[in-house]
Amino acid sequence: MTAQKPANAAADHPPVSFGKVGVIISNLGTPDGTDYWSMRRYLGEFLSDRRVIDYAPWKWQPLLQLIILTKRPFSSGEAYRSIWNNERNESPLLTTTRDQYLALEKTLKDTYGDKVEVDFCMRYGNPSTQSVIENMQAKGCDRIVFFPLYPQYSAPTTATANDHAFRALMKIKWQPSVRTVPAYFENPLYIKALAATVKETYANLDVEPDVLVTSYHGVPVRYLTEGDPYHCHCQKTTRLLREELGWSTDKIQLTFQSKFGPEDWLQPYTVEDVARLAREGKKNIAIMAPAFSSDCVETLEEINEEIKDAFIEAGGETFTYIPCLNDRPDHIEMMAEIIKRETSGWL
User: Fold this and answer.
1) Its pTM surpasses 0.90
2) Which end of the chain has fewer surrounding CB within 10 Å, N or C?
3) pLDDT digit string (tens) for 129-152?
4) Same domain, 177 and 203
5) Does residue 74 sit within a domain?
6) In a 3-state reduction of DSSP, which class is residue 146?
7) What are the pLDDT digits (tens) for 228-244?
8) H-type helices in the chain, by residue range?
9) Average pLDDT of the residues in 65-93
């Protein structure tokens, strides 16, 4: 809708745009480059988030600024360089999230036409949440559905994405109405899409894996005891996936990756468990990451390089990584169905 003066407004009233519904999908984020300073800016924003690292700033920030951010940008930059989309000069997460947005935009425009605007943002890095929300309002969106792309709820993912959206709204004089999409870990379309990726991958393998490992990003055990439901959501996701596949319990298992810091994190740890499987004679495994909606450094580099190396070094033979749902048509269909539900009364 083009900007126009409200009916019966004074002659000097500024034109305003209104009447549309905005849909924003939000992903974790990405550095702008793999060089030291790009990585330091990104890691500094990410690791300064109190939802991610909730230690007292007076204790955490000196350690972060003086030690971690002096060394970690080098190792993280190396990890990103191994998977970087050199053609577009961007991370795979940015490439895939843009592809998801474009596919979702086409689906929603085909259904709702010009009544809806679609975009994507990142919690850390660019495009920023604030810039996308402001752009949505400028296009006439007075109602916004904010969709964090995290199937399982956790404070360091879903909650911080929502926090950042509401911080952006705090700077807007005339706030749009906003609905946030809840966790969708038990959505039947999500489970069916996960199962489809497994079936398709297995159908193209010469040797069927002995075990399917579902690897989720870890969090400290303390988060569970403090009320974060993430662990329970992960457990249920794997159980529903197993039931959808019609498998016995010995064919699939759950692990957690990406441990950081000295605390006890959710276990078993993926990197240790795949090595255990190899030593116990499970020489052929497949692995997937149901908590990630898009392939990223944690899947393409950590799983398909570091964790794979641990499995092979322990005597494993065949390691098959099953990609995230990314911009698969069934994943986009799931997003569209969730948005249809969440825009009830709006569209």
Assistant:
1) yes
2) N
3) 999 999 999 999 999 999 999 999
4) no
5) yes
6) strand
7) 999 999 999 999 999 99
8) 36-47, 57-63, 69-81, 92-112, 129-138, 160-169, 188-203, 221-225, 230-245, 270-279, 308-313, 329-342
9) 96
